[in-house]
Design goal:
By secondary structure, the protein is an all-alpha fold. The protein contains 15 helices and no strands. Helix 2 runs antiparallel to helix 9 (175-185), helix 4 (69-92) crosses helix 9 (175-185) and helix 5 (95-102) packs parallel to helix 8 (149-166).
Length: 308
């Protein structure tokens, strides 16, 4: 498979993956707050573990070993907090608005990388992050503030820490092993919390929770496959198709139409995350290749004419 073909396929995988993630949010919204947050999180993690178990068992014994239990345990409980906050935010806020705040996670990773990993960000990264934070403030402006926005910020924060901590996991550990152990280690605490608030669920609720779990795993699987096929800089822009999907779904099925200021805030959040610089570099490289090809062709023609 050629490089361009691999990039195109990877982008398609990411777009389908983000569609799956968007539909997972829809499944959560359709629960309409009728299911306890703790119960939802536990059942989603349990169903995810059941799906991952046979895939994990297919690996070799060496591949199944957990190499960094402390970090994985921390990330497992960050999932619990983030998933619970996500459910509350999606239930009570427009899909597009909630997801826009979720997308602030990469912006939050900048100060966290300085504090936790002692990294030194460039001036451009700091400026773009400030623009993104201003976008968050526009979305959360007092006149349109909803208390559930605090939970959306909670999701963004836990996601940012979750991703930062992923850098402490050895590259040799398979992604499937990381997913399985992270899910498994989240079950004891989530089970205890769920039992404290347990209520009998209808078949419809169970189906929606199962859909949410399977759709999120679908996104994770497609994303892993996509990022193995192509470099992140070449395909990362496809990640933001999810925001388009939830905006369209919210408009068509939930009558959620964001106002102009909210749209501006969303653009300010997502804009700094788009790989404009990498896209420009690719365009320059392609342009230079065309010039080189044209120059070599002209030289070949000139040599042919001189020969004759």
């Amino acid at each position: 498979m050629s490089n361009q073909s691999a990039i195109t396929t990877a982008i398609c995988l990411l777009v389908f993956g983000n569609l799956a993630a968007s539909l997972s949010d829809v499944a959560v919204k359709l629960l309409n707050g009728d299911v306890s947050v703790f119960q939802y999180v536990f059942l989603r993690q349990l169903l995810s573990a059941c799906v991952l178990l046979p895939l994990w068992l297919r690996q070799t014994k060496v591949q199944r070993v957990l190499t960094n239990p402390k970090t994985t345990l921390l990330r497992a409980h960050l999932i619990l907090i983030g998933s619970g906050c996500m459910m509350i935010a999606v239930t009570h806020m427009p899909l597009a608005t909630a997801n826009a705040i979720f997308y602030a996670a990469p912006l939050l990773m900048l100060p966290l990388s300085v504090l936790v990993l002692k990294e030194s960000p460039t001036r451009n990264k700091v400026l773009l992050s400030l623009i993104g934070f201003l976008g968050v403030l526009l979305v959360l402006r007092p006149s349109h503030f909803h208390w559930a926005a605090l939970f959306a910020l909670g999701t963004a924060m836990t996601l940012a820490v979750f991703n930062i901590m992923a850098r402490k996991i050895p590259n040799e550990q398979p992604v499937l092993t990381t997913l399985f152990w992270t899910t498994l280690l989240s079950l004891p605490v989530s089970a205890f919390a769920a039992l404290a608030t347990w209520e009998t669920l209808s078949l419809e609720h169970l189906v929606l929770i199962l859909m949410s779990a399977v759709l999120i795993l679908t996104y994770n699987g497609l994303a892993v496959r996509a990022y193995k096929m192509a470099q992140a800089n070449d395909i990362a822009i496809a990640e933001y198709s999810g925001l388009v999907f939830v905006a369209i779904i919210g408009w068509l099925f939930f009558s959620e139409i964001p106002d102009a200021i909210t749209v501006l805030g969303i653009v300010m959040i997502v804009g700094p995350l788009l790989p404009f610089y990498q896209m420009k570099q690719q365009w320059v490289r392609k342009k230079n290749k065309k010039k080189e090809l044209l120059t070599s062709t002209k030289a070949a023609v000139r040599q042919s004419e001189e020969h004759h």
